[in-house]
Amino acid sequence: MNTLLPLALSGLTTTLVLMFIAWLISLRTRNIAIVDVFWGIAIAGAGLSWLWNAPAAGTRGVLLVLLATVWAMRLAAHLLWRSHGQPEDRRYREIRARNQPHFSLKSLYLVFGLQAVLAWLVAMPLLGAVVSTAPIGSLDRFGTLMWAFGLVFESVADWQLARFQQGGGAARGVMDTGLWRFSRHPNYFGEFVLWWGIGLIAVSGGAWWALIGPLLLSLFLLKVSGVALTEKDIATRRPEYQDYVRRTSAFVPRPPR
Description:
By secondary structure, this protein is mainly alpha-helical. It folds into 2 domains: about 130 residues, no CATH class; about 120 residues, no CATH class. The protein contains 13 helices and no strands. The radius of gyration is 19 Å and the shape is globular. The N and C termini lie far apart (about 50 Å).
């Protein structure tokens, strides 16, 4: 515990520095949606700092930080590409409007500081893996398979949605083909599976406490910034979405009703 706490705090320092950089970018672009791009980067950054500062990281630590970095780079690239040339996301415009005046300064702690702390907490499985000395076992392999499945699932879902939107489908109706036929949020489901795979790898190394990461991420995906926020008023803006809700699972993929 004497060495774990300073190591853990080095990761928090990393996420704070990265989100501070994101805040500076947001001041220049007047668009705080850059925080989404830096979300995965901050998590992977915390893992890389732990890997660098740990006295002797084993195979599990290297593996899990590598998996998290691959996930973070794909997510950041996708979000950066999706947001290129677009106005600030509606969610952030609402936050900006609610916190005037001096939102530019307030966003440092209301948005970027908060995201830095949350990214640090979600990254806990990476810390658990880095400090673990247990040998690689079957649970590590199963967790890696879950990670791979989740990554492919969310990547395909993101690609299908992007193709639908680029083809003008978003102006005509609701995306209900491909993986979106079986779940209203297949990208979030893939993220869920991926992070529980990461959590299992940490547990395999004896770090049960690291499950705070996937538990917190699941809470946000289901109840806060994921499914709940996305669907808060979408049926009002798109009446056809109500029929989509009636026949399609909200999260876990299953045949439509």
